Amino acid sequence: MRWRSRLVWTVPFLLFSLLLAVPLASILQQAFFAQGAFSLSSVASVLSDPYFQQIARFTATQALWSALASAALGLFWAFVLTRYEFPFKRTLRALTVLPFVLPAVSLALGFVLVFGKQGMVNTALMAAFGLTDSPFSILYSLQAIVLAHAFYNAPIVARLTHAAWEKLDPSYEENARALGASPFSTFLTVTLPLLLPSILAGTALAFIYSFLSFPIVLTLGGARYATLEVEIYIQTIVSRDLDVASALAFVQLTLSLGFTAGYLWLERRLTRPLESVRTRRTVPLFRLRTPPHRGAGRKGFSFLRTLRLCSMRVLLWAALLIAGAFFAAPLLGVMLSSFQSVHGAWTLAAYRYVLDPTENPFIGSSPLRSVLDSLRFASGAMLLALLLGGPLAWAIARRRLTGVSVWVMLPLAISSVALGFGLLRAFSHPALSWLDRGVAVVLAHTLLALPFVVRALASAFGTLDPALSEAARSLGASRRKAFFQVELPLLRGAVLAGAAFAFAISIGEMSATSMLAQPGLKTMPLAIYSFLGARQADTLAAASAMSTVLIAVTALSFVLIERGGERAI
Amino acid sequence: MASLQLTQLGKRFGSVHAVEDVTLEIESGQLLALVGPSGCGKTTVLRLIAGFETPDRGDVSLDGRSVLETPTEKRGVGVVFQNYALFPHLDVAGNIAYGLKFVQGAIDRKRRVKELLDLVGLAGLEKRRPDRLSAGQRQRVALARALAPAPQVMLLDEPLSALDVQLRARLRLEIRAILKASGTTALYVTHDQEEALAIADRVAVMNAGKLEQVDTPHAVYHQPKTPFVAQFVGQGNLFQTRVVEVAVESLQVQAGPARWRLPPHPKVHAGDLLWVLVRPERLSMSQGDNALSGVLKGSEFLGHALRLHLSWEGQTVLALCESDAASVPPLGASVMLSFPAQAAWALPASPSM
User: Fold this and answer.
1) How many CB atoms lie within 10 A of CB A18?
2) A453-507 pLDDT tens trace
3) A518 falls in which pLDDT band (50, 70, 90)?
4) With an 8 Å Cβ cutoff, is B77 touching chain A?
5) Which of A54, A99, A482, B138 is most exposed, with minimal Cβ within 10 Å?
6) Is B14 on the interface with A (CB under 8 A)?
7) C-alpha span between B19 and B6 (Å, rounded)
8) For residue range A236-273, what is the model confidence (pLDDT) as tens digits?
9) Are A232 and A417 within 8 A, CB to CB?
């Protein structure tokens, strides 16, 4: 009885560990045993090469700037979410899940379409002012990368900070005010220190994700800016120097694991339990007059004060509009351009192009096939991730196996490109080379989706009262019946959310997939990247059409995730 | 209906003995309250009976047949959980009918659900979801759900602890009436000694994993077997005394500076240590045979009575007096209390005390 219920989670656990260990071992083997004997020479030569040192420096620099930009933007967003009440707030708050499911290559495409040299902003400016040259150029620069990363990671900072802020009992601040602190110094001496753990945690995550970001740097960095992730890809796919690639992958793995360990340490050091008794009041954002209780302490009409409050509102509105445009423009640009011909007429030509079953020279496969491949892989990864993740989540929630819960989060911490590299090498081994390459893709996606599936399910399992199952059993239901009749119906939302996560992550995944691609095997994100690289009107439109499909899938999964509880992250 | 027997039941969690050597019998149709401070192992006993936990030693049997090998769903136990654990995806009728699906033989489920709704006084709420019910209504649904399959034994785990005081007092009467009407053998776990005394046919007092005493409510209150029971059940003044003189018709003890005369006790000899329990309501502000004089540290007006806190020989003595007493002595005053000999209950101090 005991060992059987243990088997339920140990088998998925071992499978998961094996799935993770094989590619990692493969990287280590190539990095240290390429010539049959143990040798440090590959890693040593990479570490001492000024070229790679420069790349590592740039990787860290852009990650740092990206993290800071994300923190600034995220803090602002968190403030607005916590302080104000406005229509669609729930939806907007839920949008913070977007970075995890929105394909980065679609976003990069949006940046090119909107902010690029021939992009919408430049075209509009040229038309408006009769310019002959594009006045606005930010792509293929550090700024472009930082901007895109901020778009991606600010929601993470916002999410963590807002969650802590919302729970922060206002009594702390009221106490400070009663003791004589001004609103501003209350914020500095009470609010900020209490929120700091969350802000730092979010910023650290933004740093790690920016450090490991691949599609955005590949697309927006151009030829001049490469990070370690991009360099591993170039060394493997373009230069075909597996020794250098594996050494880089090893370095990247070490760094990313180190960062994550540091993050976890920081999180544990900084979290302090806070009693939260009262909830925070919010202020409607749409009312321009000051709420009556604010001015109650003062007699008469203070012009300066009214002006200050009004200008605060106006500033806030302006900032919100700019931020909104910044977040919405790339996505709207993508969708718009998928329905437009070069001359601006409405057309569905791009979608016909995407459903074309004939071989396309730019992607080395037919567009239709890449769509179907993506759907196949996503379905496979979703099923596998649910099958592995369900029992693991159950074990984590019910058996309180914290070690396991950290272990299954590992795919979040390691470089996806390195993971892809390891799988590529493992699948070139005679023992596995007979397998379809698609299997490797599905396995990679399963690994990358598993942390999200496990978290979504584990938190649902955790909130599910064990007494429900016991009640069913005391009423005569067997263990199986109790699970299927009572627990599963209550978990339906979480299962759907987990499935949506897995599907969306798989269908948008580009980093590991780009390492495993081969002629005839291109998923949608890879096809989008190739189309984007071709720089022709019809391929750009096709890239937009595919991206629109991906965005639609993302939106659907987003709805499911929001409904099933968004505690997964 | 069945009788329930626990024989030398033991359960450890790691190094903690949650339940140790618990032997207990509940006769068919009887309602037994298992009471003790939190963490004393009473809920573990209930979970062992239900089959949610497996004992390390000892046996659980129904009508003399061991059920240790029987899985929960076949034991025929009805459980009412502390938080009710109503199925949130089913309505009231669905919750009550859930257990009927597994009952062997033909039954009219609709009628049975209706019967139970009538029994717990919730007719008309069939289609309500649990989250649209008040706490008291949820409690009744939980009771009805557990009773529906006509279990051999009902197990109630602190069923009232989530409710406010007034509702609690009313519902415990109702629960007793419902359980008695159904004639089910029941174990009622609670940490509230007053609730235990009010609801049960018999009370089992548990402390640190062991049973201290199993008796009628009256005996548990008036004739506690151990100092723990004396102090846990009701409020009590427990005095440590030494036996001075043993006579046929009485017993003399030395309590601090005072000398008291108590009813005879068969097992004591001169020189023995003896615990003497006097309930606060038996102490009165008067001169008498058995007297003690303490310093008044506080007084509480309770409406129906006046509670005095006295300091006497380094311990606090509680006395419950008439609330219309002409004058309350000022704080710090010396107050003389006395009690009749029959009001004292003597507990021989065991060597371990």
Assistant:
1) 9
2) 998 898 888 888 889 999 999 999 988 899 889 988 888 888 998 999 899 999 9
3) confident
4) yes
5) A54
6) no
7) 12
8) 988 888 889 999 999 999 998 899 888 888 878 777 66
9) yes
Model's pTM, two decimal places? Answer: 0.78
Q: In terms of residues, how long is chain A? A: 569
Angle between helices A142-167 and A303-338 (to 10 degrees): 120
Asked if residue A419 lies in contact with residue A441, where contact means CB atoms within 8 angstroms, the answer is no
Residue A440 and residue A516: Cα distance in Å, rounded? 7
Q: Which two tokens stand for residue A174?
A: 């009221």
Classify burial at A318, counting beta carbons within 10 Å of its beta carbon; exposed 0-12, middle 13-18, buried 19 or more.
exposed
B216-255 residues labelled b (16+ CB within 10 A) or e (exposed): ebeebbebbbbbbbbebbbebbbbbbebeebeeeebebeb
Interchain CB contacts (distance < 8 Å): A and B: 68
Q: Give Cα A404 to chain centroid, integer Å.
A: 22
Chain B residues with CB under 8 Å of A477 CB are 73, 98, 101-102
- Sequence-ordered list of residues with C-beta below 8 angstroms from that of A135, at least 6 positions apart, any chain: A122, A125, A126, A129
- Cβ distance B237 to B307 under 8 Å? no
SS3 content of chain A, % helix, strand, coil (to 5): 75, 0, 25
At A291, list the tokens: 């709420």
Tell whether the model's pLDDT for residue A302 goes beyond 80.
no
Instruction: Label the pairing between strands B153-157 and B77-80.
Output: parallel
Assess: ipTM above 0.95.
no
Q: What is the dihedral of CA B79, B82, B86, B92, to 10 degrees?
A: 80
